[in-house]
Amino acid sequence: MASYQAINPRELASYADQHIGDNVKVKVTIFNIVDDQDLQGVIYGRYDAVCIATSVPFSRIYKGDVINVYGTVSCCDYPQVVAASPEIAMRSGLWIL
């Protein structure tokens, strides 16, 4: 996890294009579960939306959950964090994707 750096939420929301390829850690409140590999959420404490895509299916993530996402920023209409390999660290709010 050392290669993932916390990013200022304003920085990710405003300048995501400048961070494409960066490994970041961001706290997200889930508002939509698209399918078993794609989520949508808002940056915790803000209203900026992010899309989260995983390379393998996940389970036990629900609307309203607050999760920490470790992943790589990629391009989309709004910031997208592509999480490479899901591993559940603990159920109480911390998920490593």
**Hey, roughly how much beta strand do the residues contain?**
35-45%
Kindly identify the CATH topology: OB fold (Dihydrolipoamide Acetyltransferase, E2P)
Based on the coordinates given, report the CATH architecture: Beta Barrel
The tally of domains stands at: 1
- Shape from CA axes? globular
- Tell me the series of helices and strands, N- to C-terminal: EHEEEEE
- Helix percentage: under 10%
Enumerate how many helices there are, as a single number: 1
Structural class estimated from helices and strands: mainly beta
Any low-confidence stretches, pLDDT <50, length ≥5? 84-97
Q: Can you give the mean pLDDT? A: 76
Rg on CA atoms, Å: 12 Å
Order of strands across the widest beta sheet?
A: 2-3-4-6-5
The name of the CATH superfamily reads: Nucleic acid-binding proteins
Note down, in words, how this protein is organized.
The chain has a five-stranded mixed β-barrel. The termini are close together. Strand 1 (5-6), helix 1 and strand 2 (23-35) form a beta-alpha-beta unit. It has 97 residues and is mainly β. It has one helix spanning 9-15; strands at residues 5-6, 23-35, 38-43, 49-54, 66-74, 80-83. It has a single domain (5-83), classed as OB fold (Dihydrolipoamide Acetyltransferase, E2P) (Beta Barrel).
